# Entry
Amino acid sequence: MTSIYSYSLEDLTKLMQAMGQSSYRSKQIFSWLYQKRVASFDEMSDIAKGFRERLKENFNFYRPTMRLKQESSDGTIKCLFRLEDGQEVEGVLMHYVYGYSVCVSSQVGCNMSCAFCASGLLKKKRNLTPAEMLGQVLYFDEMLRARDPSTHVTHVVVMGTGEPFDNYDNVLSFIRIINSQFGLDIGARHITVSTCGVVPGILKFGKEGLQVNLAISLHAPTNEIRDQLMPINHAYPLEQLIPAIIQYGKDSGGRRVTFEYILIKDVNDTIDCARQLAKLIAPTFGYVNLIPYNPVMENGFERSPDQNIELFHNFLLQKHIKSTVRKEFGSDIDAACGQLRAKHKDGN
Ligand code: SAH
# Structure
């Protein structure tokens, strides 16, 4: 049986039609689920009892359960969620001046094996369903509303464990549910998907007609450096990635991507690298989000000194590349990707 939380309005409408119902039925169900937040068909009082019974035979209300919660002094809350097959994933809530943002995991583990990332320590076990991604958002949203009814989740970033474009269809259904005005009604511009550079995914995503933000984990200005940090670069090197991003801009009506760039001492943080980066990305008109490397494991990598970060940042600005240095959250609660889950597995 499938979770009702896995269906976008579009998919549910098709299903309702196949079950001989009017297309309005799916909007009614969405409104019960996401506006009134009921968790049983029996509470959907404007749906005939006979049809409620049929719904019960076909769908359940499965959502991941919260197992472990860590709250940082800066307000960041990281949760470990348990899935129905016993697997565990992390979701993080961050409080910004402009609202509350949830960082969602899209897979159990990750196969991308980036050298700096703790998520890849656990190989991909499986993709998350839309309901399992949505469950992370709903948990935090309901927690916020219970604490203060005037607050709720306003932003979603698909930047947790996993590669979203390695789970394309489920991620897209999830985005459609949170974006739908009958669903969580989170504006497309408040939703960001982050990819390590899966070129076919980028090209497909550009043609979906969504106004969602796309972030590219770039982390290096040359193939030589990127090959060492991110194995995906062997499959989709920069000479394929950059044109795909330019194409994405054209297909999506001029949407600009954000490049994420972790600064690792003596690996990718020199002025030479900044110069190569500026030249590489100028044709895309993208922004750069500089991320001080978070030392998550024994891999020999060190965080760039603040002085290098500043020099790198200023160089990009001089070259008219819009760039910011990412604020760090939850450094006291293992908030970097995969850390909490990795620790929990070790029994710590
Ligand atoms: N697979 C997707 C999304 C998950 S990673 C992607 O690659 O974009 C989310 C972001 O966290 C990526 O930019 C990733 O490079 C970054 N990240 C991973 N490990 C990190 C670390 N130790 N310090 C800082 N950022 C890290």
Observations:
- Residues 112, 116-117, 159, 163, 194-196, 217, 260, 262, 291, 293-294, 296, 336-337 surround S-adenosyl-L-homocysteine (CB under 6 Å).
- The chain has a mean pLDDT of 93.
